[in-house]
Amino acid sequence: MSQATLTRPGGPNTDLRRPSRRGHGHPWLTLLAVALGVMVVGLDATVVAIANPAIARDLGADFAQLQWVTNGYLLALAVSLIVAGRLADRFGRKTVFLVGVAGFAIASVAVGLSGSIEMVIFWRVMQGFAGALLQPASLAILRNTFPAEKLNMAIGIWAGTSGLAIASGPIVAGLLVENASWEWVFFLNGPVAAVAILLGLWVVRQSRDPEAAGSFDLPGVGLLSAALFSLVWGLIKAQEYGFGDIVPLGFFAGAAVLGTAFILRERWAAHPLMPLGLFRDRSFSAGTGLAMLGFFALFGSFFFLTLYLQQVHGMSPVDAGVRLLPMTATFIVASPVAGALTARFGPRPPLVIGMLLTSVALFALSRIGVQADYLSLWPWFIVIGMGFGMVLVGSTEAIVGNAPVHLAGLAGGIQQTAAQLGGVLGTTVFGTILATRVGDVLVEKLTGAGVPAEMAPGFTAAEDYVAQGVAPVPPGAPQPLADAITTGSHLAFMTGFQGALTVGAAIALLAAVAALLVRRGENTTAGAHAGV
């Protein structure tokens, strides 16, 4: 069918006028434009992890500040993704997507120009807000461009493109950190974003929700943003104070109160920000939870595996990126495979298989020691990459495929919110477990490695550095003492590392059981039946 005769079942959700220029509205060119935009976000998922040690050394960042480079970005995303998805539905998915890509590029360059860790964190937060605009809109654009029989494959390629960025990120970041500086890791986003904007302006067709012309439900926006902020802030503070402390508990209580108020508001609102009926669908709700758990495992394991390779094994950023390539590169292959499986059998098989693979890999990695050779690591990196690709595509289809087409932007926002909350949970929960275990065993591991018993307690002030895999060897320490401090510190780090991954494996196993609740989407009519 030619693009001049596009029709859409279910309402005027897409501008279906005759294309004014060659390529305008073409599904595969649209996918390319959207994928390039999402690629800048994917690059940041891994380049920051590789650049973190260099940022810490150059700007004098401590462990908490280093985690804020990641958590500040994730916090901004988590707070604003659902609102951004609704903005895309109302004001146009193309417009919001392009604004998000441009904002992300500007913030990325500003990170590279920052001269302090505080400014790096600030601009990372701005990146988060911009990323929130482009990610839900990208999924909504695909939903409104591809016919039902091609949508799952398009989602698989969309995810695979993100995987390509994730896979290339460690190598590119390592080369830039070693041969230029960590700032160039962020400057890299500029040219990629520029191509995405130019192509998007030319080929992406505008679409919006025709029913979203009423009030924007500003009270709902405020309540949801405050609830998500309180939840994520509480998780971050739990790493600093512990989950039982009054500070995180207070934020968790605040999140519960604000969340309840938001639900009540949405039940009464004439034009709700988030129609709660979406969550009555078992598959939609399960897909949301599984997206969160998939990113929980990926972000948690990736952050600390990077520290393990660079700090404990002493690898350079490039070497660490190359060693992680089996994980990130496998994701490229897994996503289209998961798309094909989902198209044929629905999202349940890839979700169950993906979570089982993740559980097995995390449990295996939780058994490694300080001196583990690479041959014992890379097979499990492949398994993690395969599992994550399956979970990402399956959970995205379960969410987007079970939401009405006119709420595609909102569904994309919910999917991305679940993913980013999972990322925050992964880094904070894994980090809390690791830091707590390091504090519990540090003195014991130091004395066991040969540090004098009267000297070992003095190193507890350096627990934050040990939790990064850094051995706090004092300047001028004799070589035997330096070796003992290094050995004891690395053993303490590995105790925490092993505990964190064991918890992750158990959670992934429970998620595999929950994945049995998911069924094929019932609303997978696409935005256009084009000649794809």
Task: Walk me through this protein's architecture.
The chain has 16 helices and no strands. By secondary structure, it is mainly α. α2 (63-91) packs antiparallel against α14 (408-449) and α5 packs antiparallel against α11 (317-345). It is globular, with a radius of gyration of 23 Å. The N and C termini lie close together (9 Å).
Structural class by SSE content: mainly alpha
* Helix run count: 16
Helix proportion: over 70%
* Nearest-integer average pLDDT: 81
**Strand content bin:** under 5%
- Which residues sit in consecutive blocks of at least 5 with pLDDT less than 50? 1-18, 523-532
Order of helices and strands: HHHHHHHHHHHHHHHH
Assign an overall shape.
globular
The description of the largest β-sheet is: none
Using only C-alpha atoms, the radius of gyration works out to 23 Å
Could you give the count of β-strands? 0
Distance linking N and C termini: 9 Å
Organism: Phytohabitans maris
Protein name: MFS transporter
Domain Major facilitator superfamily (MFS) profile: 30-523
Membrane topology: Multi-pass membrane protein
SSE order and pairing:
Layout: H1 27-59, H2 63-91, H3 93-113, H4 117-143, H5 148-179, H6 183-187, H7 189-203, H8 218-241, H9 246-268, H10 282-312, H11 317-345, H12 348-365, H13 378-400, H14 408-449, H15 463-466, H16 479-514
Quick description:
By secondary structure, the chain is mostly helical.
Which key phrases capture this entry?
transmembrane, MFS_trans_sf, mainly alpha, cell membrane, single chain, disordered C terminus, 532 residues
